[in-house]
Amino acid sequence: MQLATPNLVPQRADDAQQGARRRLALIVDDSRLQRRILCRSVQAWGFDVIEAASGDAALEICRDVTPDLVLSDWMMPGMNGLEFCDAFRKLQGDEYGYFILLTSKSEKEEVARGLEAGADDFVSKPVDLNELRARITAGDRILQMQRELTGKNHLISKTLQELQRLYDSIDKDLLEAKKLQQSLVRERSVVLDQGHVSLLLRPSGHVGGDLVGFFRAGEDHLGLYAIDVSGHGISSALMTARLAGYLSSTAPEQNVALEPLGDGSYRTRPPLAVMQTINNLVLNEMDTEHYFTMLLADVDLSTGKVALAQAGHPHPVVQRRSGQIETVGPGGFPVGLVHDAQFSQFDVQLHRGDRLLLCSDGVTECPNVAAELLDEAGLETIMADLHGIKGPAFFEALVWKLSEFAGNQDFPDDVSGVLFEYQVRPDA
């Protein structure tokens, strides 16, 4: 092997400093005279040149460096040009070398063999230098496009890696946010002397805009609430966290549904007044475009009387001990849309063995594969089927029924609910 340009690496570094990258050509021919002719010509056309007298020697060079251009004779002793071309292609990584075979062969079958081995072009021997330069120029255009494509692929790959890193970071944060949101509903099942409260909160994504809960007010009153914030995702979840503070079960002094008494205890405020208070708080203190539907209930545990306010949330469902189902409530206007919105309050009387269900529209508007919604009639049918199932098992069965109705596809909306099963005190 001989180097036609002995200071090859320094020359390329100098060119790089000047902003121009000199291309590298590999000349492979067992004829020293032919190599000399080609080397001088190719150097004059702006290439640094390495020459090799055989395919084996050329292959060793290519293990260390990938030339931009290879000019190789076809007929050589040992490894011929076709075999070298095939081996050269198997070595290549991201960088591409343009391969021209020098040959006296012109039969179509031989040309096809060369193309299959990886050759890009052919030049007939004896070599016409004008033709060779034209073919190298054409190949250089292809190399330039290949370099641009490789650069763009590297950029895309780097961008995708960065996006994946950001996605993984966001996904990790969302998982933490999910844990925090789930912690807003600390107790999913609570047994009282006068009844049993069960809660369901199942976001459709990492986090959601639904919120359910309860709070005590003295010995004889229990507050229940179900909220569905517009939209999905992080902003909706942040809204639910703010609303959870307004209806806190652990900090009664912050709960807008409770008012303090002189002895340090609290009593419930009428649900209608609470709804109006929350509406004003949202519109006056929160800079948000979110609104929400809501159901708020005040249960008198001693009598079974329930006072409710409904603001656009699906209708409450009462299931009597006999299994009879009653859908109640006027519907109403969502919270957080307009000042001085008018809400209404109504009463429901529960008797021993009756139960009250408050659920989000993720239940009633759950679609099947034909895009048909479950609706309230479908919910009543499910409740009739699950009449004998109590407590948290009811919600487990409800979710299973919803999944069956949806064709086992993911729920498109958050699914949440509050189930209160009433029984009077044993000594009443």
Largest sheet: 6 strands, antiparallel
Please give the share of residues in helix: 25-40%
List low-pLDDT spans: 1-19, 424-428
Average pLDDT metric: 86
Strand-pairing-aware structural class: alpha+beta
Taken in chain order, the helices and strands follow as: HEHEHEHEHEHEEEEHEEHEEEEEEHHHE
> Termini distance?
107 Å
- Tell me the number of helical segments per DSSP (H or I, 4 or more residues long): 11
The total count of strands amounts to 18
- How many whole angstroms does the radius of gyration measure? 39 Å
Shape: rod-shaped
Biggest sheet, spatial arrangement of strands: 6-7-18-17-14-15
Task: Tell me what portion of residues adopts beta-strand conformation.
Answer: 15-25%
Structure description:
With 428 residues, the protein is an alpha+beta fold. Helices cover 39% and strands 24% of the residues. The protein is built from eleven helices and 18 strands. The strands form four sheets. It has a six-stranded antiparallel β-sheet with strand order 6-7-18-17-14-15. Strands 2-1-3-4-5 form a five-stranded parallel β-sheet, sandwiched between helices. Strands 8-9-12-13-16 form a five-stranded antiparallel β-sheet, with helices on one face. A hairpin with a 5-residue loop joins β10 (258-260) and β11. α3 (55-64) packs parallel to α4 (81-91) and α4 (81-91) packs parallel to α5 (108-117). The radius of gyration is 39 Å and the shape is rod-shaped. The N and C termini lie far apart (107 Å).
